[in-house]
Design a protein that fits this description.
Shape: elongated
Structural class: mainly alpha
Strand order of the largest sheet: 1-2
Distance between the termini: 61 Å
Radius of gyration: 42 Å
Largest sheet: 2 strands, antiparallel
Strand content: 5-15%
Length: 250
Amino acid sequence: MNRPTKIAALLASAALAACYADPPPRTDDAELGIELPAQWTTPDAPLEQTLREDWWREFGEPRLDALIEAALEHNRNLQAAAARLESAAAAHTIAGGPILPELDGSFDTLRTRRLFLGFPFGGGGVPSSTVTTYGLSLAVRWEIDVWGRVRAGDAAALADQEAAVEDLLAARLSLVGQLCRAWFQSVEAQQQLQLAENTAKTFAATLEDVRDRFQRGVRPALEVHQAATNLANAEASVAQRKELLQRALR
């Protein structure tokens, strides 16, 4: 049996099995022992929340504001989304054009001069006459959208334009959100580095104190080794925090 024959047989078997399969039995909530509450804790209607266009300014950080403004102005992906929106808007205008009647008009001017040769008018020269003719023409065209082709095309173009608007807003929101996240990650990394450096300074002072007491015979050598180990771990944490800070800044 070749491959197409096997596939056809499998499809036929699946169709026959579907024809003879019984639907699952319906069960009510009471049979399952489920009691629905009289009122849900969440409201029925969704909460209406409006996000400000410049919501990041609520953080009150001028340097962050400057970075976001520069990103919104020079980001290539955002510029591409804006260009797609302009293209969709132009396509919508073109698609909706046949819905309205089209009026074409033209205005023509024709000036002619006639020479009367052989007429004995005297006075020298050839007698002539000049005639100016003006012409105005109007033409009206209107496609009757019997089957709804024009309206469907206009609706599709409008949907594309609305989708392009949402894509632009989403790209803008994503860009600002990523930049804010990177900003706060860098701030957190700076604070973590400062904390690690302060911790290392504390362990260094502790090691000096324990070593001085050991030399005077007050503390055992084990405490000196423990203090040195704590200082080494703290210095390693400082190096790690510096790397995380550089990564966040990049």
